[in-house]
Amino acid sequence: MKIEGRFDVNAPRAEVWDKVRDPAVMAQCIPGCEDIEEQGDDAYRAVVAVKVGPIKARFNLLVEVLEELPPHTVISRTSGDEGTRASVVTSENRLTLTETATGTQVDYMADVSVTGRLGKFGLGIFRKKADQMAATFVDNFSKHLEVSA
Amino acid sequence: MTQILQPETLDEALAVLAAEDEAMPMSGGATLVAMKNARLVEPTHLVSLDRIAGLRGIATLPDGRIRIGAMTRHFETASSALLTGSLSVLRQAAGKIANRVVRNMGTMGGSVANADPAADYLPALACCDAVLTIARAGGERELSILDYVEDWYETALEEGEVITAFTLPAPEESPSAYRKIARVTGDFATASCAMALTADGQGIRVAIGACGPGPLRDPEAEQALIGKLDDPDAVTALAERLVAMADPIDDVRGTADYRLALIPRLVRQGLDDLKKDLR
Q1: What residues have CB less than 8 Å from B91, skipping those under 6 apart?
Q2: Do A117 and A86 meet the contact criterion of CB atoms below 8 Å apart?
Q3: Alpha-carbon span B126 to B77, nearest angstrom
């Protein structure tokens, strides 16, 4: 399942880059993110809780930065499970920052796969939930930049 | 391990649900048991509502309104002699749920609590202007079906709350119909339409199912259509309003675009059927 989107923020690219690479900021912006910690320079462990109706899941994720081209591109891989491996999630992610007349354009793309118990849940609903989470992230991230600007 | 409890009174059930964070109420179990077996839910307690008196059955209230207990099985709703005229849409919807085994097991309260966007009751109840009675430890509240679904599988029902009944306005003699597009008989709807003519035959109430998180209904657009049921452009305008409200998913039952294309056809065909019933 591909999740992609684009949004504009009113901040210079260098500042957006710093925020994107700051796990503390990301932890506050990712919906359901309960914990995030650095594992060396290029990897993070994160705990993210997701809820769809009565179905609740808490994923332990490892995010590895595969390639970093400052100050505009991060390519990363996310993998993780629910602890019991009841569901396994993997995703390949690409984030690109482009300078614009008014600030920065952020493009994100993730190719996500979920297998296991949550894979039984319809993909259509997953996409809606993923889109909602992306929208919440954009909202949180934009607010964060405004506050710190 | 999940503990199964079978309280005899509603207060007892609500007390357990209030006390235990991971307890879930269970009605017919048609969906919940399958979800539990698939480990999609892992409650510490399943509180069966089956032995609680007064939650089951359909009755006419002194003021003519109809009350359906939340534990009423689909087959009872599908064969109720009280759901006539404007309310027959709900009887028809119940009869189109899954198969006989599920209709013998499943309940209206359970189906609505689960709030599957493609299930049959939500649009039918929306068309009937149903009001839900929701109980929690120490109180109860009423809520319009139109305010009930908040997001995909998310409802106004809070932890510890249980739907106890549905109240419908007194039936009018005007016809109503439930139309369901499904891949095979008994499947969840690809899209569905619940429609009733108003008592004077001049307007309609219409709700679309399976094309968004909850049933789609636009009372304002229905108001604008009063007296213009024979004007195809006016009917199209209402259908377009419903299409604009829709937010369907792509899934095995159909693409989002296909669902959007079905809405105007369902509205037109539904209206044609009701007009035939009038003659």
Answers
A1: B77, B78, B79, B80, B83
A2: yes
A3: 16
Cα–Cα distance measured from residue A85 to residue B71, given in angstroms and rounded to the nearest whole number: 36
Q: What is the pTM of this model?
A: 0.91
Domains and CATH numbers, chain A: 2-148 (3.30.530.20)
CATH number of the structural domain spanning residue B183: 3.30.390.50
Pick from B123, B160, B166, B164: nearest CA to B144: B166
* Pairwise CB contact (< 8 Å): B41 & A55: yes
Choose from B40, B44, B45, B258 for mutation: most chain A CBs within 10 A: B40
B-chain CB neighbours of A122 within 8 Å are 249, 251-252
Q: How does strand B3-5 pair with strand B45-48?
A: parallel
* Full residue range of the structural domain in which residue B246 is found: 176-278
Residues 6+ apart with CB under 8 A from A83: A58, A60
Residue B257 maps to a domain: yes
Supply the DSSP string of B223-275, one letter for each residue.
Answer: HHTTT-TT-HHHHHHHHHHHHHH--PPPBTTB-HHHHHHHHHHHHHHHHHHHH
The predicted structure's pLDDT at residue A83: 80
Asked if residue B112 is part of any domain, the answer here is: no
Tally the domains of chain B: 1
Distance from CA of B271 to the nearest CA of A (A): 30
- pLDDT computed for residue A124 by the predictor: 79
Q: Does residue B211 lie in a domain region?
A: yes
Is pLDDT above 90 for A122?
Answer: no
CA–CA separation, B43 and B23 (whole Å): 5
| CA–CA separation, B50 and B9 (whole Å) | 10
The reply to whether residue A53 touches residue B114, judged by beta carbons under 8 angstroms, is yes
Q: Is A40 helix (H, G, I), strand (E, B) or coil?
A: coil
User: B140: helix, coil or strand?
Assistant: strand
Reported ipTM: 0.80
Cα radius of gyration rounded to whole Å, chain A: 15
Pairwise CB contact (< 8 Å): A53 & B251: no
Q: What is the pLDDT of residues A60-75, one digit of tens each?
A: 999 999 999 999 999 9
Contact B189, B264 (CB under 8 A): no
Contact B249 A86 (CB under 8 A): no
Q: Find chain A residues with C-beta within 8 A of B211's C-beta.
A: none
Domain-located, residue B273: yes
